[in-house]
Amino acid sequence: MSRHVAIVTDSTAYLPPRTMERHGITAVPLTVVLGDQALEEGTEISARSLALALQKRRSVTTSRPSPEVFAETYRRVADSGATGIVSLHLSAEFSGTYDAAVLAAREAPVPVRVVDTGMVAMALGFCALAAAECAEAGGTVDDAVTAAEKRAAGTYAYFYVDTLDYLRRGGRIGAAQALLGSALAVKPLLQLEGGRIEMMEKVRTATRAIARLEEIVADRAGSAQVDIAVHHLAAPDRASALAERLRLRIPSLADLHVSEVGAVIGAHTGPGLLAAVVSPR
């Protein structure tokens, strides 16, 4: 990466550690509150531990990083030689992370552009990668922001959950929608739209829902060169099988990432999550 423009994101981007290291991307961790314990995502709580806690119906909530954590991150990045920072974060509809970053940016020792990408998971991760690649090529802060925003505009995220209860508890979907899904015993397909989670389709069985998810992703990919990420929580076999089918169906596929989501997103979706992100290059 250009030493003059640094890229900061947050832990919900779920970028592979080697990718972050290779591109010099810094991730600020969100926090999972498990009972009376506050644990940093990625270092102090694993997705597997989170899934087990949810299955045992333990109290799980999440919280944003504090402005002080962002301020310290910006200082550390500036001390490493950066003269500008692009700070890219999950949708402000989901979290106060963006607001905390904005507060910290006002006191940063170098200019910081904070961007609400409207994304989450690798939909956010692909935006951070686009910004980092732009910076590596000598782009300015404005150039890197433009690259991230362009990537976000073309990126789509779709997901299946076994139940809407976790999204309802966290306030990420309306109680009426969650109740309707439970009453009709349907399996919901959702999408990220305008930074919010929206109901897309209701399917009668999990098998049909996952088949429909595959069809939607393949149609969205079309003939363009795309990167795809398949995420899951406590459903590795489902994720691997979906990824392999997509690999066969999409000849224009560039990179394919398969990973388990972290504890923050998992807390709001529950075990059984299967998601796919389509991001044209």
Counted beta strands:
13
Overall SS class: alpha/beta
Number of H- or I-type helical stretches: 11
What is the C-alpha radius of gyration, as a whole number of Å? 18 Å
Order of helices and strands: EHEEEHEHEHEHHEHHEEHEHEHE
Shape: globular
Percent of residues in helices comes to 40-55%
Q: What's the end-to-end separation, in Å?
A: 19 Å
Low-confidence stretches: none
Strand order of the largest sheet: 10-9-8-13-11-12
Mean pLDDT: 90
Strand content: 25-35%
The major beta sheet can be summarized as: 6 strands, mixed
Compact description:
The chain has helices at 17-23, 47-55, 67-79, 97-105, 122-136, 141-154, 165-169, 175-184, 206-221, 236-249, 263-269; strands at 5-10, 25-28, 31-34, 37-40, 60-63, 84-89, 112-116, 156-160, 187-193, 196-203, 226-232, 253-260, 274-280. By secondary structure, it is of the alpha/beta class. α5 (122-136) runs antiparallel to α6 (141-154) and α9 (206-221) packs parallel to α10.
